[in-house]
Design brief:
The protein is built from 12 helices and no strands. It starts with a helix and ends with a helix. The protein has helices at 3-25, 29-47, 59-82, 85-94, 96-107, 114-131, 140-167, 170-192, 194-226, 231-238, 241-251, 259-277. The radius of gyration is 18 Å and the shape is globular. The longest helix has 33 residues, at 194-226.
Amino acid sequence: MSLSVFLVVMFAALLHATWNAIVKKNTDKILITVLVTSSAAVISALILPFLKQPLPASWMFICVSAMLQVIYYILIARVYHLVDMSLGYPLMRGSAPFIVAILSASLLGESLSLTAWLGIGVICLGILSMALDGHHEENRDGLRLILFTAIIIAAYTMVDGIGVRRSGAPIAYTLWIFLLTGLPMGIGAFCTMPGRFRNYIRHYWMQGLIGGGGTTASYGLALWAMTVAPVAMIAALRETSILFGSLISWVFLKEPATPRRVTGGWSILAGAMMLRMG
């Protein structure tokens, strides 16, 4: 993997961790998630008219991805109601890359080097080590929900890994997904709780804008990287966002930093370096 692609995906990981922290810190997880996705939809709608549009072969993938991501955003809001970010974020993000690696080998015919496979495995082990640090008996409902969320993440990652390569326009492909994801969520909020949502926007519009811009840019950069590097490698490398998410949760959200979580963080970093060499 080239250094430029590596750095782009690492920056995408930082952006991803940042918007997750915004959701976790806010007291109303549902409304902040809707505000973030709605902001992403507005940003997308403003930019799309000026871009080359995706090829017809990619539109089915855009629609399927949008549906999966609506489910994902609803799930992530619920997850953060039940568990700490330092547990939920690593576990739901860390379970997906290995599934993606296996599927991409069979569906996309991607061949990874031994170093790349080892890097993916080390990242996954580090993430799972952090996530299961003394919490696996704490909240069974939260754990089940986290694992289901991981399946949804793996599903939309594979869909987009295929779709973006058929689009001929990675940026527009990304923005259409966020438009079709955020639009129904925003409309739903206005229809079911109009006064509450309008009042929420007045108070938290800046958080929504930062989160919406962050999630759009993060995923857009990752999808671009999937057009020039194997999907499995990008999916795993993007999950180094766990490192940034853990730092945010420890420093700003005052969640505990145990030795096992710190060791898991070093493992993730080691796996990222292996992917860089793979």
